Amino acid sequence: MKDKKNVLIVGGTSGIGNQTAKYLVAQGYDVIISGRTQLISDDLKYLYLDVCDEKSVQELFLNIRSLDAIVYAAGITTKQKNINEFDKDIFNNIMDVNVSGLLLCLKYSYKFLKESKGKVVVVNSLASRTYSQFSGVEYTISKSALNGLVKQLAVEFAKDGVLINSVLPSMTATPMLVKNVDKKLLESIEAQIPLGRIADPLEIAKAIEFLLSENNTYMTGSGLDINGGLYLNG
Question: Is 63 exposed, middle or buried (0-12, 13-18, 19+ CB in 10 A)?
Answer without folding.
Answer: exposed
